[in-house]
Design goal:
3 strands; 118 residues; three-stranded antiparallel sheet; single chain
């Protein structure tokens, strides 16, 4: 894989990933999941945020490919949705950014962010 591919990141994909990582809440979620997988209720308690707010951030992280989720049954039969970090590595250099910029689908002043990544 070449330096510019960044696990297959085009310019648009790079913007999406960086926009997703630009939230303090999402960085905290990733940091918590770096210690191991967790289910939504436990993760919300650990982070001190509501489950509804956590779900919003988890959906954005999952859409960006930074976390994965799967359902498991607890011993008492409850379905629990577990999240964990997906393997990823970003190594940004001026050359990588320059190469990614050549693949952007929209030319503009840099304010174009893919929908759903605010």
């Amino acid at each position: 894989m070449s330096q510019g591919e960044l696990w297959g990141l085009s310019g648009d994909r790079l913007v999406e990933v960086l926009a997703t990582l630009a939230s303090p809440h999402r960085l905290r979620v990733l940091a918590a999941l770096a210690g191991g997988r967790a289910y939504v209720s436990q993760l919300a308690r650990d982070l001190g945020i509501s489950r509804a707010l956590l779900q919003v951030h988890l959906k954005k992280l999952e859409k960006a490919g930074l976390v994965t989720a799967h359902l498991e049954l607890s011993p008492d039969g409850k379905a629990l949705k577990y999240y964990e970090t997906a393997p990823f590595s970003l190594h940004l250099t001026p050359d990588v950014v320059a190469l990614a910029a050549t693949t952007l689908s929209t030319a503009g002043d840099g304010d174009a962010v893919p929908k759903g990544n605010s």
